[in-house]
Write a structure and sequence with these properties.
With 247 residues, the protein is an alpha/beta fold. The chain is built from 8 helices and 11 strands. A 6-stranded parallel beta sheet has the order 8-7-6-10-9-11, sandwiched between helices. A 5-stranded mixed beta sheet has the order 1-3-4-5-2. Helix 2 links the parallel strand 6 and strand 7. The longest helix is centred in the middle third of the chain and has 21 residues. The radius of gyration is 20 Å and the shape is elongated.
């Protein structure tokens, strides 16, 4: 069954006003009177809805669904600006894997240099990708997307988190494979986690020092060295296993 995110509060009947959502519902999927979909409002609750009038884009809310597909912890993925369309791939896949937010920042070793206009355009594109991936994966929430103009602004947000991990290549090379598993073993529901990844060149020693000063822990993600677009997927899969599947 198709799922759509709707802004605002639930009310009966509900009129769909977003042009992209209307196009997908009534032009692509060709919904007609009586067809059913799942609508998710800003409260994160899924509701079964039935088309009342296709020409008016109106729905009747039938019942609430108690289904909650969100991770029990809130994970923000923060990547140093990568090259090409890698951030688009990261956004789509970590949304499917349950990330609460996707952040990116200009790292010391980022090859790309984005100005404010480029960042705004990229952010708009990523928001749409996250929305589509959240609908496809039947999420209750759409992840926040935030691109930072300056690294100092990113670093200023570190106090928002309960735990911060740095996916550090040098830790992996040294054989470190215990930190992430240890910290996730008895983690509490609702814990706010930040996992930081470098761009293609990795995270600089200066950045590691700044993150460690805020309480971050460096960790390896297994014995293999992964690409910048692969490592976030590994980390989220490990977090999902530890918090949803293990015991």
């Amino acid at each position: 069954m198709q799922q759509y995110f709707v802004k605002g509060a639930p009310e009966n009947p509900i009129m769909i006003t977003d042009k992209d959502t209307i196009k997908h519902m009534f032009n692509v999927m060709r919904l007609t009177e009586g067809d059913e979909v799942v609508l998710v409002f800003e409260d994160g609750v899924k509701r079964l809805a039935k088309v009342l009038d296709a020409s008016e884009h109106s729905f009747e809310l039938v019942e609430e669904w108690l289904e909650d597909t969100e991770l029990p912890v809130r994970v923000t993925i923060a990547s140093g600006f990568p090259k090409g369309d890698k951030l688009e791939l990261i956004t789509q896949k970590v949304t499917e894997l349950g990330a609460s937010a996707i952040w990116a920042f200009p790292a010391d070793w980022s090859v790309v240099k984005w100005d404010g206009k480029k960042i705004a355009k990229k952010e708009d594109k990523l928001v749409k990708i996250a929305l589509g991936a959240a609908e496809q994966s039947k999420r209750n929430r759409v992840p926040e997307v935030r691109l930072f103009d300056a690294k100092k602004d990113f670093l200023a947000c570190l106090g928002e988190f309960d735990k911060i991990f740095i996916a550090y290549e040098e830790s992996a090379k040294a054989g470190e494979m215990a930190v992430l598993a240890r910290e996730l073993k008895d983690i509490e529901k609702g814990t706010k986690i930040l996992v930081v990844f470098g761009p293609e060149g990795g995270i600089s020693p200066k950045e590691v020092a700044a993150l460690e000063a805020a309480g971050a822990l460096t960790c390896g993600l297994g014995p293999r060295i992964m690409r910048t677009e692969t490592a976030p997927l590994y980390a989220l899969s490990a977090i999902s296993f530890a918090t949803e599947l293990w015991g």
